[in-house]
């Protein structure tokens, strides 16, 4: 029976196995994002100074660990004498999968450390955030790097990314299930729920990474060189800019529907699915940057994890600034302080002349901030040039990897 199940699992496509790894990340990370601040503020009663100090340290660690771990991950590949003519190196893929099989279960264990009070809240807040983000970074970098290492053609990468987006959206369902267990007065059922999610994630990382490693150890199949017809459609400037803008616009529009009580569940579900799906398109752009870096710098192996880490160096601080700016804006415009139980009853020092109702303040925060971010993204991506003929030439050189053709690369 065991061999039969294992044989059935081996028949699953590589794209499905790769995408399922996103599920085991998403089911934990979405719950973390929704509840970690509420847990430490309302359940563990962390003070304001410790919260801001922890978020400041986390901001620094969250920004620096991505390029650091990316460099550590790719250091052995960049110094390897192996030729870079192979589009998909089995050695690179196997090392990525080995890292996922180790760091995936540790990531799930670090997730559990949030939901049990085991030391002073300020210290636990700092340790848990840094530990969790460290393992999350290793998992994310290796998983995203596999997208660039498993395939080069736009068609194959789009297929891999589609399954990753699909499973990631499915993972957001854990948030809806969590509402049935969340009770800050009685934390026991929520802890059991988190243990169940972590166990599922650990088993998933172990089984899927083992299946993929077995596949590449026994039968390495080079990725097919597909037509570049989808390149402009998927990773072109207009498409990417619009979709990245829609990531924030969809969040705002979904919340508007929620605010006016129109299809409550549909709006929440579409908000999660749209944002999970559209933000994954950025990974396709980064894989194109990996190809460009490989060609321009004449690398022997693509520095996939390092490139994803450098991108995160710029983008990750937003995850830390979001709760800080959000709580500050709420306090500034409504007079509500999440760290003070009676902050609405007592007039704060910096209270506005005409306080905005808390509900209206939340509405403004969740609608106008995403719209502003979307407009800034559209403006920024108007400067993006790696698309069209330039991208096609980079793809051709990446697939051919002929050093004799790299002389005039920078003139593309």
Please, could you describe this protein's structure?
With 412 residues, the chain is mainly α. It has one domain (2-411): Growth Hormone, Chain: A. It has 16 helices and no strands. Helix 2 (14-43) packs antiparallel against helix 8, helix 6 (154-171) runs antiparallel to helix 11 and helix 12 (281-296) packs across helix 13. 38% of the residues are buried.
Poorly predicted segments: 81-88, 221-269, 343-349, 402-412
General shape:
globular
Would you tell me the overall average pLDDT?
77
Fraction in helix: over 70%
- Quote the beta fraction: under 5%
Find the CATH topology: Growth Hormone, Chain: A
| Structural domains: how many | 1
**Number of strand segments:** 0
| Rg, Cα atoms, Å | 23 Å
Major sheet:
none
Note the gap between the termini. Answer: 56 Å
Summing up helix and strand content along with how strands pair, one would put the structural category as: mainly alpha
- Give the count of helical stretches: 16
The CATH architecture can be named as: Up-down Bundle
CATH class: Mainly Alpha
What is the N-to-C succession of helices and strands?
HHHHHHHHHHHHHHHH
Brief digest:
This protein has 412 residues and is mostly helical. The protein is built from 16 helices and no strands.
Key structural traits:
single chain; mainly alpha; Growth Hormone, Chain: A; 16 helices
Secondary-structure topology with pairs:
Blueprint: H1 2-10, H2 14-43, H3 48-78, H4 90-112, H5 121-150, H6 154-171, H7 173-178, H8 188-218, H9 231-235, H10 237-259, H11 264-279, H12 281-296, H13 304-315, H14 317-334, H15 358-381, H16 389-400
Helix pairs in contact: 2-5, 2-6, 2-8, 3-5, 3-13, 3-14, 4-5, 4-8, 5-12, 5-13, 6-11, 10-11, 10-15, 12-13, 12-16, 14-15
